[in-house]
Amino acid sequence: MRPPPNPGPDKRMAWLQTHWIAVALLAVYGALLVRHAIEGRRGTKGRADYYVGGRSMGGVVLGLSFFATYSSTNSFVGFSGQAYTYGAPWLLLAPAVVVFSLSAWIWVAPRLRAFTGAVDSVTLADYVGFRFESRAARVLAAVIVIFASFLYMIAVFKGIGNLLEIFLDIPYKGAIGFVFIVVVLYTAVGGFISVVKTDAVQGIVMSIAAILLFWGTLNSAGGLGAIDAIRAAPDTSGLFRWDAAMPFPVLIGIIVAGTLKFIVDPRQLSRFYALADPQAVRRGLIVSTIAFLGVYTLLLPIGLYAHAVIGSGLAESDLVVPTLLGDAGILPALPAAFILVAMLAAAMSSLDSVLLVMASTWERDVISLFRPQADEGRAVAHTRFWVALFAIITAWLALNPPGSIVTLTAFSGGLYAACFFPAVVLGLLWRRGTGAGAVASLLTGFTVLLCWDLVPFSDAVHEVFPAMALSLAAYVACGLAAPPLAAARRLDIKL
After folding, report:
1. CA angle 322, 327, 331 (to 5 degrees)
2. What's the confidence (pLDDT) of residue 114?
């Protein structure tokens, strides 16, 4: 008796016939990653090249990278769909993104580039250590950076995993594995140069994708006027109240936690380390501001309009964009496939930066402090190993993520804001900072953020506000009690 025919090849052929456009675009994108990885490897002569591009990169490419690094799948999948449950108040995220991005470029970028270049700083943790002449502050900062980075990367993996699972019929675990392999290879090989060059292309791709996604959703919803019907419908009218999903101060806290990271997140700040000159700062400011204003104005209303397209029955807002992309009646095959590749690009543009930050921080600010200093070549080789190891750990954790995309992203951003705002911003603007103040602010911000839920009536205020306030208070109190450090006087910083 003959065995039944093997259906495997037929299924694979049917899958390929259905998704061939996306596969073709992914192949082109993969070739681009390989090219940039090779260019990055050729351009890497030492640790400064691998970590911060030799501090010689232009403003246009870094402005696009600054935008692309922030705009991961957390934005395209999480932020785009969040108005589905958070309602119209969520649209306030767009001006917040622009304001905090501008603040970072105007107030932080020039000073941080000058200071870190003068003291040979290449990570956020070693900036803290050099600025305050404190090993304890440096190691503590490194631990917090790595912990917060794990949370953020889990959110990114979750977003792209959900998207590939729904759109390409790839099992969630398989999607996580695919993204893991690709991002590790080109990040480990090419370092910062490869990451930034790829980010610049990804920023352009994501801008086009935002236009296509908004256009497709709006057409399917019936045009801009569909918002009036959504506001009038009994089951969605509540989305237009200030307290649509939660007390308004809590929502503002989520928005602040998600956007203040422009000023304190090490993956964003690393772009400032790499700026070549003051002209590069100005160009980067212009490019990133235009990108943020245009893209987020288009993305954030999608969750609201989705009620007119797919109804109100989705279990979570993270499924809004994958559901829209999976419906052939909303977007034709080519635009949908292009948006999918853009989403993958969005994930890569954040994962590569966070992996590089984690690996460089661990190697330079933890390991190298407790063993003999490695030469430039060995330090880069060690960092490549840490890139792979941290990616393995995060991919494994992402198989059972502990929260939604926005929740994980906001908590990670809250950690950076509460812990690093005093050390980064006041460290550059106010001379009277001390090592004790840096340690106190890091510990205070971390502790308050983790324990805020234990405080009575804590649900009325987002934890980022009390955590930042107490962290700032600890930093200022220690600073006022001691004279300024010599490290703050190494540069002619105009305060």
Report:
1. 95
2. 86
Q: Are 344 and 167 in contact (CB under 8 A)?
A: no
pLDDT at position 493: 46
Whether residue 282 is contained in a domain is answered as yes
Q: Which residue has the tokens 């490419």?
A: 61
DSSP annotation of 312: S
- Contact call for residues 54 and 48 (beta carbons, < 8 A): yes
Contact between residue 475 and residue 438 where contact means Cβ atoms under 8 Å apart: yes
**Sequential DSSP letters for 105-171:** IIIIHHHHHHHHHHHT--SHHHHHHHHHT-HHHHHHHHHHHHHHHHHHHHHHHHHHHHHHHHHS---
| pLDDT, position 8 | 57
**Distance in angstroms (rounded) separating the CA atoms of residues 303 and 317:** 8
Q: What is the CATH number of the domain that holds 113?
A: 1.20.1730.10
In a domain, 197, yes or no: yes
pLDDT in the model for residue 71: 81
Instruction: Name the nearest CA neighbour of 298 among 86, 102, 71, 104.
Output: 71
The CB density around residue 235, as the number of other CB atoms within 10 Å, is: 11
CB 362 within 8 A of CB 146: yes
Dist CA 119 CA 45 (whole Å):
20
Percentage helix, strand, coil for the chain under 3-state DSSP, each rounded to 5: 80, 0, 20
Q: Which residues on adjacent β-strands are paired with residue 275?
A: 57
Confidence at residue 485, expressed as pLDDT on a 0 to 100 scale: 59
3-state SS assignment for residue 275: strand
Q: Which residues of the chain are modeled with pLDDT < 70? A: 1-9, 73-74, 328, 372-374, 405-406, 484-495
Spell out the residues 6+ positions from residue 302 whose beta carbon is closer than 8 angstroms to its own: 80, 81, 83, 213, 214, 217, 320, 321, 324
What tokens were used for 203? 């920023």
Full domain range(s) for residue 291: 19-408
Per DSSP, 422 falls in state: I
Question: How much is the CA Rg of the chain, to the nearest whole Å?
Answer: 23
Orientation of helix 376-398 relative to helix 333-365, angle to 10° = 130
**Would you say 112 and 270 are in contact if contact means Cβ atoms under 8 Å apart?**
no
In a domain, 148, yes or no: yes
Domains identified in the chain, total number: 1
* Residue entry with tokens 């960092």: 383
Residue 441 near residue 140, CB atoms below 8 Å: no
Q: CA–CA separation, 64 vs 180, rounded Å?
A: 23
Provide the CB-side half-sphere exposure for 259 (13 A, CA): 22
Locate 216 and state its tokens: 């497709």
User: Residue 375: how many CB atoms within 10 A of its CB?
Assistant: 10
Side-chain-side CA neighbours of 78 within 13 Å: the count stands at 29
446 domain residue, yes or no: no
Task: State both tokens at 228.
Answer: 């009036």
